[in-house]
Amino acid sequence: MELNGLDLKWPGVLSLGVLVAVALAFLVHRMVSRRSARAAAAVANSTALTELPEYRRALRLHRIRMAVLALSAVLLGGAALVGAARPLDTTVDKPQTRSRDIMLCLDISGSMAAYDATLVATFKSLVKSFEGERIGLVIFNSSAATVFPLTDDYDFINDELDTATKALSGDPEFESFFAGTFNGRGTSLIGDGLATCVSSFDKVDLQRARSVVFATDNHLAGRPIIDVDEAGELAKAKGVRVYGLNPEEDGPDDEALEMREVVTGTAGHYYAMGDQSAIKGIVDSVQAQEATLIDAASRSLYSDNPTLPIALAGVGLLGVVGASRRWAT
């Protein structure tokens, strides 16, 4: 963030005020000059009075009070004008974002029902470990739907994951969460789901680290448009690393082996859901990927800064009151 200095919200108020003050000063000067000319009168033998030390001291004090009053009035009026013009501190903010994108990809088919709420809790744990990375969420069954696109608004992300937890726990109020995931034939079309997640990254022209956290039991039921091996090849072609979470692995089996081969083929890693090191392993692997800071569009920020004009107006007011009270006494 770069400080640009003091600015005025309404500079025209200051310009207009200065013109009015100059005009008033000219009018007052003319009135005082005319009155002085009419009141002037020759007084014989006044030199004896004006030469007295007491007279000279009184005249000197009078002139000092007049100077203090004039300067204080100018200070008070000037500070009031500056305050009316709304002084602002202007800063230029140059935000930066990290060039890591992470897409959370969740299978919500019937075979995953017992695990989905736990997987969303796992996703929330992952999100807490990131700072500045963009996160998105895609869910899939017979077709895939984007719950929210890539964003670095972590409050929004956590709110959406809370909604996902309620929906996946069977709350009927959140049935709309599943909209768009039943538009195909079959269930758990894993290849289509992974391909959709891989294709959900934007800014493909930038050198950004892109990762998919892919949670599925890999129990295919139906004929997908893209099988899981082809989706893995698509991920490799786009430079996307896939981190697999399998909640149902119970020892080695063909489906788990296939999923392991797909995700490791993208330079990602495979984890069983019961693996206590899964979350830390995914976070460490994602953060180990090289990332650069990307400058976002600069923006000017303004904040009121009335401290100086208020302080000067206070000094001016004290001067005016002090000089005026001296005359009154």
Automatic annotation (TrEMBL):
InterPro entries: VWF_A, vWFA_dom_sf. Pfam families: VWA (PF00092). The chain crosses the membrane at residues 12-28, 66-85. Keywords: Membrane, Transmembrane, Transmembrane helix. SMART domains: VWA. The keyword Metal-binding does not apply. Residues 101-286 form the VWFA domain. This is VWA domain-containing protein. It comes from Terrabacter terrigena. The lineage of its organism: Bacteria, Bacillati, Actinomycetota, Actinomycetes, Micrococcales.
